């Protein structure tokens, strides 16, 4: 065969990735379970580059040059396993299967192991940026063997988004499931970013008394500063949009129940297993699920509490500036938590993930792309073993400068009865890290009291237990 790459699964993401490869000068074999989609792609976009349309699995595999590189763009879960089972028997040693879906990294680890035994490389690659990204340049997070990246990397670099300094937003993240793990945390951070922006909107709407159009303007202003990011930019677009049918702000005609497909939930589940406090991301997932409990909300509508009283114009303006500080500080915390989780996952699975490169490939193409990621990259590049983003001098100073306004916003929200789970969880995390002593000592005492779970002392090595039911002497535990 002559095709340098193949794409099977031609729904919108697969189709756009195939077009992106072709537009960048590669010969692309294309395949779909139902051949009509393959024909439609070539009919509509055939002039964009060199496509090799194929109908059967055998024909598809035969169209590829060796080592074969096939990108699978089907639904995560069983459909992915089915496609692998269909193609693996047709492949030879050294061939590479790339899964570009939102797979769970544990599935990716299993698939990689099974295919490795047959001499086939399996690369779980996170692909972020939605339909537009797939076509014009996504951020790509490939895992799998370093060897597979040698043949695959140059092709991915052609189609990836380019950071402002021109570097392609793709890197070999680490072996087996590392790529899908990092994509999962990307989505967890995406949930947190979206929740924080939503809280800022809610406060500006209810406490500052701003209209959606005015908030759109405020966000456009923020987008020229340190909050410069894709999500702030599209938020302004959504808020400025008017519903054609009613003439009302679009945001007022949409049901206030947020949905989710699962990657944010996975981030939190895995963080719990790894023992990593991702409280900001967790609150974002819970906020979505709470919003969806219509019956719970209906049953609670009569509960007592304040109704927000909008501020006058001048006070509103000052408040909006404080909300910007709270949003920025909370954002630093969610990235701190997300990067902590990547570091913990990398240690657990021995992936050797370089946090600076992760920040670097998130600078463009992906949903959480933001100017701020270049500074996270710089922080980890300067100190690869940085324990926490908050221990970086510049981020530490910035969040320190924001903290007074951040507190004022959480106080105002609490007083006025506006829920800010993201802002307040982030602030609690910040204060817990600052605290000289945490009440965890008391928790240990309670555990020892009711279950002889033992504790450690501040002044001596070893584990101890107090005979709470007896004369309360302390004994050294085994
Ligand atoms: C991306 C997005 C993408 C998807 C989200 C939506 O990086 O391009 O994250 O993967 O649109 O996962 O997730 P929810 O449906 O769970 O909000």
UniProtKB/TrEMBL annotation:
Entry annotated with the keyword Oxidoreductase: yes
TM region(s), chain numbering: none
Chain ranges of the 6-phosphogluconate dehydrogenase C-terminal domain: 179-469
Pathway the protein takes part in: Carbohydrate degradation; pentose phosphate pathway; D-ribulose 5-phosphate from D-glucose 6-phosphate (oxidative stage): step 3/3
Class of the enzyme per the UniProt entry, highest EC level: oxidoreductase
Gene3D superfamilies linked to this entry: 6-Phosphogluconate Dehydrogenase, domain 3, N-(1-d-carboxylethyl)-l-norvaline Dehydrogenase, domain 2, NAD(P)-binding Rossmann-like Domain
PANTHER family in UniProt: 6-PHOSPHOGLUCONATE DEHYDROGENASE
Function noted in UniProt: Catalyzes the oxidative decarboxylation of 6-phosphogluconate to ribulose 5-phosphate and CO(2), with concomitant reduction of NADP to NADPH.
Protein name: 6-phosphogluconate dehydrogenase, decarboxylating
Provenance organism: Streptomyces crystallinus
């Amino acid at each position: 065969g002559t095709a340098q790459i193949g794409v099977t699964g031609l729904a919108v993401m697969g189709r756009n990735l195939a077009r992106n490869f072709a537009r960048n000068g590669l010969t692309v074999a294309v395949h779909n379970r139902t051949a009509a989609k393959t024909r439609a792609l070539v009919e509509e976009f055939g002039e964009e580059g060199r496509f090799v349309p194929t109908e059967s699995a055998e024909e598809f595999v035969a169209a590829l040059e060796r080592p074969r590189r096939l990108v699978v763009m089907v639904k995560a879960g069983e459909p992915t396993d089915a496609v692998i089972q269909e193609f693996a028997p047709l492949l030879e040693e050294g061939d590479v299967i790339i899964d570009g879906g939102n797979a769970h990294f544990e599935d990716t680890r299993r698939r990689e192991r099974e295919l490795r035994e047959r001499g086939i490389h399996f690369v779980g690659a996170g692909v972020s940026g939605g339909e537009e990204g797939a076509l014009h340049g996504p951020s790509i997070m490939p895992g799998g063997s370093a060897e597979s990246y040698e043949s695959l990397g140059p092709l991915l670099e052609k189609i990836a988004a380019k950071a402002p300094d021109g570097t392609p937003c793709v890197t070999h993240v680490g072996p087996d499931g590392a790529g899908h793990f990092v994509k999962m945390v990307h989505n967890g951070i995406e949930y947190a970013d979206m929740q924080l922006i939503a809280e800022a909107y809610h406060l500006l709407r209810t406490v500052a008394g701003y209209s959606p159009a005015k908030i759109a303007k405020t966000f456009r202003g923020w987008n020229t500063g340190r909050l410069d990011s894709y999500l702030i930019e599209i938020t302004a677009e959504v808020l400025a949009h008017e519903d054609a049918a009613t003439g009302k702000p679009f945001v007022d005609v949409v049901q206030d129940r947020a949905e989710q497909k699962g990657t944010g939930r996975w981030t939190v589940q895995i963080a719990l297993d790894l023992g990593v406090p991702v409280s900001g991301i967790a609150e974002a997932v819970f906020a979505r699920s709470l919003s969806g409990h219509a019956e719970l909300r209906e049953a609670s509508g009569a509960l007592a509490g304040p109704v927000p009283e909008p501020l006058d114009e001048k006070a509103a303006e000052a408040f909006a500036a404080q909300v910007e500080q709270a949003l920025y500080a909370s954002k630093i915390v969610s990235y701190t938590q997300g990067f902590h989780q990547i570091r913990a996952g990398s240690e657990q699975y021995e992936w050797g993930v370089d946090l600076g490169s992760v920040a670097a490939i998130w600078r463009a193409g992906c949903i959480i792309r933001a100017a701020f990621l270049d500074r996270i990259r710089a922080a980890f590049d300067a100190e690869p073993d940085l324990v926490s983003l908050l221990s970086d001098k510049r981020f530490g100073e910035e969040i320190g400068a924001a903290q007074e306004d951040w507190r004022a916003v959480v106080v105002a929200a609490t007083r006025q009865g506006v829920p800010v789970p993201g802002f307040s969880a982030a602030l609690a995390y910040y204060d817990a890290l600052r605290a000289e002593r945490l009440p965890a000592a008391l928790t240990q005492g309670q555990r020892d009291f009711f279950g002889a779970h033992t504790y450690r002392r501040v002044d001596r090595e070893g584990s101890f237990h107090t005979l709470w039911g007896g004369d309360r002497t302390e004994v050294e535990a085994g």
